Amino acid sequence: MIRIPCPFCGERDHSEFGYGGDATITYPALDAPAADWLEAVFQRQNIRGMQHETWQHVSGCRMWLVVERDTVSHEIRSVRPAHPGMGKALKEGS
Prior knowledge:
Layout: E1 3-6, E2 10-13, E3 18-22, H1 34-42, E4 50-56, E5 64-70, E6 76-81, H2 84-92
């Protein structure tokens, strides 16, 4: 079982989260050629080891998070809000 330490709600079971995919992908502009979108959406590396992933806390605060997770051991090294403004809100207690 994977336990994800949500910065907003505390440590929770991974069943409360929805997997969003690779957090390192830069998506093309909306009017980019179809080949660029094909590359961004479907051409993925199957990384063995540490990977940055997006997860949404669907059954909790509903925030999107970036989780640094080892794909072999499922060890979680770090979790941070996916949007930089949320980190500031956490520090200010908002």
